[in-house]
Amino acid sequence: MKKLYLIGNWKMNPATQEEAQKLASDISRGIKKLKDKNVEVVVCPPFTYLSVVKGQMSKVAKSQAISMGAQDMYFEEFGAYTGEISPSMLRNAGVKYVIVGHSERRGFLGETNEMINKKLHTAIKYKIVPIFAIGESKKDGEGSIQEIRTQLSDGLKNLKSSEVKKIIFVYEHVWAISGGDKTHKSASPNDVLGMRIFIKKILANLYNRRLAESVPIIYGGSSNASNVEGFIRQAEMDGALVGGASLDAEEFLKMVEVLAK
Ligand code: PGA
After folding, report:
1. Where is average pLDDT lowest: 17-21, 23-27, 131-135, 189-193?
2. How far apart are CA 98 and CA 216, in angstroms?
C-alpha cells in the first residue's frame, strides 16, 4: 500500500498557546485510534508552539505515525541572523520535517529560488525532511509552466539524486490556497493530475525516471475532508498539505480517515 502524507500547516495560528495545546491534543487523541499505518500525519505549528505540540504528541505511541514539522528554517547553520531559526534548533525541538518555499513566503517575504535551494541543502544536511513547495504565482498558461520548471531546476540545484529522494514535493495551485476561507474554491482533480504528470516529467529530465516515479508529490490548496479523496484517488497525489482545514481537529481527523481507507 502506498504511503500517504497529511501535513497540517497551521500558518500564523492559533492565537494562544492554550488553543495550540488543545488542537494538538485533539489531533493526537484522534490519531491514537487509527490502526492504519500508511498515513503519516505531520503537524507544522508556529515556532513558539513546537514544545507544547511535542508534549501532546509524545502521548501517542511511537508506532503511530504522527510527527512535527516546522513552517520554515534559515539556511545558515549558526550566527548573527536576527529573527531566524537554525536547523539544529529545530532538530533539538523534535522537528522531523520542514516546509521550504511556501508560496506565502515566496510572495509576501520575497524568498527566491536561490534561498530555497540553500534551505533544501541545509535541511538535508541536518536530516530534516524538506516539504518543498512549488506552484505558479498566477494563471498564465505557458508562463506558469515555465515558472514551475524554474522553481524545480533552481530549487534543486546541485542536489544529488540520493538527496532529492528524501524530499516531499508539494504542488499548490497558488490561486487555490484558501487563506483560511473555508468556501474558497480548489482545483479539480483533473487539473491536479495534469500538474503531477508535468512535475514528474521535469524531475525525470533533471534526474531520471525512477527517481521521478518514486518521490512523493502531495497537493495543497483548499483541501478538506470533502475533496481530498479526489486528489488522492483521481489525481493520484501522495497526500495533502492542509492549511485552513488543519485548524479544525475534527475536519483534519476526517481527512486522515479518508486517506487511511
Ligand atoms: P489552505 O492552505 O489549505 O488553507 O488552502 C494550504 C497551504 O497553503 O499550505
Report:
1. 189-193
2. 15
